[in-house]
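Example complex used in Figure S2.
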Amino acid sequence: MASSADARAAVLGRIRKAIGGASSADVARAEWEAIPREFKRAASHERGEVLELLVERLIDYDAHVVVVRPEGVTDAVKSLLEARGVRQLLVPVGMPDGVLPEGFAFVVDAGFGASELDAFDGVVTMATVAIAETGTVVLQNAAGQGRRAATLVPDYHLCVVQATNVVETVPEAMVRLQATASLATTFVSGPSATADIEMTRIKGVHGPRFLDVVVIEDAGSK
Amino acid sequence: MRVSLFITCYNDTLFPETGKAVVRVLERLGHTVEFPAGQTCCGQMHWNTGYQAEALPLLSRFVAQFKGAEVVVVPSSSCVAMMRDHYPKMAEQLNDAALKREVEELLPKVFEFSEFLTKRLGLEDVGAYYPHRVTYHASCHGLRNLGLGDGPLRLLRAVRGIDLVELQGVEQCCGFGGTFAVKNAEVSSAMLAEKTTAILNTRAEACTACDNSCLMHLQGALHRQRTGVETVHLAEILASDDGTR
Amino acid sequence: MSGTALDPRTAPVFPMAARSAMGDTQLRKNVRHATDVIQGKRARVVGEMPDWQELREAGKRIRQHTMAHLDVYLEEFERNCTKAGGVVHWARDAAEARRIIVDLVKATGSDEVIKIKSMTTEEIQLNPALEAAGIHPFETDLAELIIQLGEDQPSHIVVPALHKNRQQIREIFRTKMNLPELGERPQDLADAARMFLREKFLRVKTGVSGANFLIAETGGVCVVESEGNGRMCLTLPETLITVAGIDKVVPRFQDLEVLLQVLPRSATGERMNPYNSIWTGVDAADGPKAFHIVLMDNARTEILADAEGRQTLNCIRCGACQNACPVYRQTGGHAYGSVYAGPIGAILTPQLMEMEHAQSLPYASSLCGACYEVCPVKINIPEVLIHLRNKVVEQNGMRNVEALAMRAMGMIFQSERRFRAAQRMGRIAESPLVRKDGQGQGWIGWLPGLLGGWTQVRDLQSMPKETFRDWWEKRGTDGK
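Predicted assembly (947 residues):
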């Protein structure tokens, strides 16, 4: 598109005029490295406290949370699904063994259309990382987590988080995500919500109205 | 200490009692007060309204009057904020290296009145007696630009006989804002109404602050509404005593 | 305020618009309530961050650095986004951006689009352009839906319908969604929106969004939202068109470690908003099959060229300055005559208009500094306001009453002799206006001309007989 090329040249030209000439990538890199980052970048709590913080913050934003030993995962998932009264459940490709219980219809995502996704009662996934301080689970388009629409259209999401993937702070999470930064990524902090009406927080507008989180303790802990 | 007083143009013209009170407090504390006679205005009104060309000569004038001072005390937080926040940039604009250096030397010696007492002298009790119910309004420039914090309140708490009551929304602007009160009179009035309501709710006899511009604004409405509530600069409270000294 | 778009070129001056806004007591009540609630929430979650000032400083430095190397980072973004299958378009101004988007939608064959809340699309008045081309845009953010169905205009960057209360929203939904029985609990209203939009999410094949951040290092785009409507628009359609100001770029993925901390806490008072989406170009197994991004200038380079105004571009559109502003609190957003209201609007709008319109906005502030105090990237809004006031004064020239008075005052302050004469003159000039009260104190209850605004609700104490300097001199000669 010729006009787009003109526009590109024009905009970049204006920028260079405004900043006093073309910038150089090398200079930019050196200056970026020198930006002071004196805020908290590493964990300041013991592991046990970090998990407790995650649970507290998830609950604070209306998620339901259970913490289980590795051998108790299947049972925990089972009782959560029963409590929610859901049967027809979507799961991404690559769910690990030992998470999904018997007695439910788990259907592996085969690239369903939006209306087909809408017909599921819920979805069960893993997570790449969870952030304790903000009560956030981060999902990427990877094995056990799947594409973004799958955790969006069904009204219920159960997310299983390994304690080894729990970090305390946002900066720690960004470090963990750096290697896979180009994958489609969603930060989920509680169920869908809005405060657009008189600043009253309402749970569940368009995304899943219900979020359960199962945190699997480290095998070696306690 | 040798204290040079910068009274500011509107205190000089409209609120001489504040200046007298500053002199009384400083002398009671054993300091010598000087008043450079050629002083006029810091340039805030011009600068903040967009008249930079008119403000610039006032910088040179201020520096000429006060250079060599041991400390400069100013009973107006907004004027001190004007100097601290804008004088270095103004000197830069004038492209006058000598002036820039003089500004850099002078500014650390310039103090708002309450700031001078609490931060420079480390005082809280200055021997005042003021048996009245009083509320304190934190003027914006003192609060945010100068970071006075609870300094003025600590001075007030040490006043004997005072009944100090907290003002709801103490950090909210009274709506003065210099020419803002004239250019946006309706909005300014609405902000003022919230502030006077808060003052009346304290049932205080007087409202105090570190800035007569805010107080003049508040007084304008408190008088119009015949509330009987007075406004009084912090210096005037600190200058009051029971006559035994 | 009806369906007429907020346009700084035709909007009334701020004092006039503010007067009519302040006549709406319901609006003022709604705005006060909303801003009080958000400020309280913000204060709580900011208060739990001991490193907040360090985060603000880092946020400022990252944004400053980006602006200083904007050409490098935009080109890097373009390269990486293109490599990942995205198509990058450039637009010099709003008209060009609108044309590109309309053409892209037309090329998909759809005559409807679903939209995420985007102030950039409001800035360029995209919806009227789409409608003129026979394309129906569905706003999907709850607040934007309220605005669209209510034929209203946004009044806040983050909570565009904050000027409406639940009863007013119910009336809009009742009529426009044909739901006569609709309740007025916020939950009822949100449920109605969910039902109303669900079908559109599942059906409409083209999405339009703005962007919070463009990541140069990866070519990725980040959108921050709460309801999930954003995720719907970003993932379900076959084609996604994103429009972003060139100021939205950040150097690296890692920089989100700062911005994703300061933005939610400042914007909605949450530790993290419910959803952040990051995508990079096109992923065959996830989301739209086609992704277009329009990088728009629209006077941003003019702002970039102004050393003192440049920091305006650091804005990450959190709206914290609006919530903290005592002026916005009284008037709400429409009085600013622009989709960007409040303190940030007062500096952004005139600059986006290249200082040709909206000249009353830099004066729509008491310079109290509450905006600067809460800004997560430390934009010194009062400083920029003063800078813009100077530009306005220079444009207006010295041939007007205010300028002449200011010049005269300036001359007076340059001489002690003239200053003393003026003090004496002032006492003489005011004397016809002064009335004595019972205690012998003089008061002025009416002032002429420009100063009349003062005496509408305030009295002015008359000038004392003796100035401070007179007293000081007498005291000297008395030997006291």
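Chain C has two domains: 14-302, 401-476. The radius of gyration of chain C is 26 Å.
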